[in-house]
Amino acid sequence: MRLLKHPVHRAFQALARDHGPIFSLRLGSQRAVVVSSAALAEECFTKNDIVFGNRPHFILGKHLEYDNTTVTMSPYGEHWRNLRRIGAVEIFSTARVNSFTSIRREEVHRIVARLMTGGRQRVELTSAFNDLAFNNMTRMVAGKRYYGGGASESDAEVAKEFTKIMKEVAELGGATNAVDFVPLMRWLDRGRFEKTVKELAGNMDRFFQGLIEEHKSKEEKLESTSTMIDRLIALQENDPESYDDQLIKGLALVMLLAGTDTNAVTLEWIMSNLLNHPDVLAKARDEIENQIGSDRLIEETDLPNLPYLHNIISETQRLYPPTPMLVPRISTDDCVVGGYHVPRDTILIVNAFAIHRDPSLWDDPTTFRPERFDEISGAKEGGRFLAFGMGRRSCAGQGVALRVVGLTLGTLIQCFDWERVGEGEVDMAEAKGITMPRETPLEAVCVPRPNMKRFFP
């Protein structure tokens, strides 16, 4: 039971130091194997990728993920391949991602305009990044902004409730809920945990069903600017069996759960690191000034020309991965990992946090140094870098995430000078959760750069 305490990724990292990069343990009645090395992670996700192609079934997946039928939790097979294909063609294709460029730009500019209203001021960035990430996803999914200008009071209340639900899900999720593994704990709990999950799932389902009904009732269909839900409803009209409401809700659920908290948390950690390393911040600003200047605002098309900015993102994701332990897999057959026999029905937990801080892979592994990604050939290969997972079940939304984070970060650096609120360094302690948020909300002092104010009259 000691291992079920948070932060679990640190507990597993400590165990790996004592017992090696692969060890097994019992999560109640369930056998699990924990992998903490890049070579073994690569072995799991290449040689044994199909064996580890399924997810274990937890209470959250049963009730929240429509009985484990979403693209995240669905067993490897025809249904999962179909969901993955829909995502690749209808959601994450280059054309679809490009069609939402203006949405991402508008949401970033809104947060910048809000920060521009005062002079030198102390700002709380955690909620700002949460609002930005949520609006980005809901506008791409459903064409609605829930925070800030253009959002009704009722929509804002709905968003607050939904955000609260997402945070609860993030705290409840993972492979560490005792009631999922220990029959005695389930009896002692008297169903309270499952009741909580059912209530959360019901609230989420009503939210997504409401969006679907709202879009079905629309009289005009704007094909060129249609949202994800619009597009899926159009496919449903031609093939109602393949594109039923549950499939649409499941895809929307994954988009919001996977694309909101992870982006917001990543931005928080990036800014935390930059505040503690003003030399890195200055170097990033110099790159933006040299490549773009101050005659216009940064665009997504500029991002490929800003390698140091990308290095900052990568180094932050190395030290503070969006999911410190990858979403668990389960073996469908006996296999061998690192020379050890792994029986069928064993849960696989890959500790990305430990791999990203492995001193055999990274010099000075706990030091924030973006330059390392220029110095190391193949720094993201061979299971060394798992910010978006690995293998056939890796994150399909990586491209969108990097655009959202890159554009937001670049614009904030271009438009403001940033300082810590006090003389001491920003506290870098992490809280519990699937996405490893900061323990305390991030505050900073922002000073609008005079030559950038003209873009936000």
Automatic annotation (TrEMBL):
Source organism per UniProt: Linum tenue
UniProt-annotated location(s): Membrane
Pfam families attached to this UniProt entry: p450 (PF00067)
Keyword Oxidoreductase annotated: yes
Cofactor(s) essential for the protein: heme
Similarity field: Belongs to the cytochrome P450 family.
This protein's name: Cytochrome P450
Keyword vocabulary terms for this entry: Heme, Iron, Membrane, Metal-binding, Monooxygenase, Oxidoreductase, Transmembrane, Transmembrane helix
Gene Ontology CC annotations of this record: membrane
UniProt-listed InterPro entries: Cyt_P450 (IPR001128), Cyt_P450_CS (IPR017972), Cyt_P450_E_grp-I (IPR002401), Cyt_P450_sf (IPR036396), Plant_Cytochrome_P450_Monoox (IPR050651)
GO MF terms, alphabetically ordered: heme binding; iron ion binding; monooxygenase activity; oxidoreductase activity, acting on paired donors, with incorporation or reduction of molecular oxygen
Keyword Transferase: no
Binding site for heme: 395
Membrane topology designation: Single-pass membrane protein
